[in-house]
Amino acid sequence: MAFPFLFLILLSASLASSKSTLTLDYYAKTCPKFEQIMQDIITPKQMATPTTAAATLRLFFHDCMVSGCDASVLISSNQFNKAERDSDINLSLPGDAFDLVVRAKTALELACPGIVSCSDIVAFATRNLIKQIGGPFYNVPLGRKDGLVSQAAKVEGNLARVNFTMDQIIPMFESKGFTIPDMVALTGGGHTIGFAHCKEFSNRIFGYSKTSEVDPTLNPKFAERLQLLCANFTTNPAMAAFLDPITSNIFDNMFFRNLLRGLGVLASDQALVTDPRTKPLVEKYARDQAVFFKDFAKAMEKLSVYGVKTGKDGEVRHRCDAFNAIKT
Question: What are the UniProt keywords, alphabetically (predicted)?
């Protein structure tokens, strides 16, 4: 039994060593204008396209939960490889986030070529966008390298689907070292400013069961609004609904308050209210925004260093959608 115990110690030491190479002032000498350049891209982009914050947070989450925060979700597929961004669950990732990363990378390559990783760009942009729309500040240590692998086959089982139950979602997070409060806080943070396409919740508002057209856990008037919004979703698949219909572009605790009133759009969101492991957290965050912000910031700091690549385990890509060398 000594070997497994020793393995866990070595694994823990390896992870700690990896994270210790990240620092808050990583680019102070190599790219001193990093933060200013990033902010010059982020601020006008969010003002011009208010969905940018939600899009970037979702991109960041989808990246980190699959093999760590290494910008592997940005890689485009080629004839040799089907990349993460082309897995079915990632096909709906909004273009606003990809556009922001391209703009930031272009500006940084002009100022300090070959220095700033795409994974650092995504992590830093996510934090600053959250802060810009009212969310909490949290530290983002820098120095990540971009991953060398991006495969669509690695995505399944690492990202929750909209019809997952808490029995499926909680173990998924726990396997990566995240607690139930981490999971609920991260979900609330992403969904207080997020949106979902009608096809992702149409089964809750059209022909739900033999006895009910609509999921009875939905607020009836809200269900009617969703039905009107999504009436033509089969011919217009771009139709979408905000996951927080009250304050969709403000980072706050309204998502949790909505859940308690039957205003949860996704089945997986509504499950947060019905499961005894998560309902107390929904109620706590609905009552106290400061507590939610504190737990969200803590969870985001943990997420931002999950599975990071450093040293020879990664590279600084010349462009964010392609490896520096073609992978065959």
Answer: Calcium, Disulfide bond, Heme, Hydrogen peroxide, Iron, Metal-binding, Oxidoreductase, Peroxidase, Secreted, Signal
pLDDT tens digits for range 231-279: 999 899 889 999 999 999 999 999 999 999 999 999 999 999 999 999 9
Cα(105)–Cα(85) distance, integer angstroms: 18
**For the chain, how long is the longest CA-to-CA vector?**
66
CA distance 179 to 186: 11
Q: How far apart are CA 91 and CA 94, in angstroms?
A: 8
Active site residue 197: no
How far apart are alpha carbons 256 and 290 in whole angstroms?
A: 13
Domains, the chain, ordered by start: 10-159+304-313 (1.10.520.10), 166-302 (1.10.420.10)
Name the residue with tokens 């273009």.
95
Is residue 53 within 8 A of residue 300, CB to CB? The reply is no
68 labelled binding-site residue: yes
Annotated binding-site residue? 96: no
| Residue 173 to residue 65: CA distance in whole angstroms | 9
- Find out whether 18 is annotated in a ligand binding site: no
Q: Of 45, 62, 145, 257, which is the active-site residue?
A: 62
**What residues pair up with 240 in beta bridges, in sequence order?**
197
Write phi, then psi, for 240 (nearest 5 degrees): -145, 160
* 209 is an annotated ligand-binding site residue: no
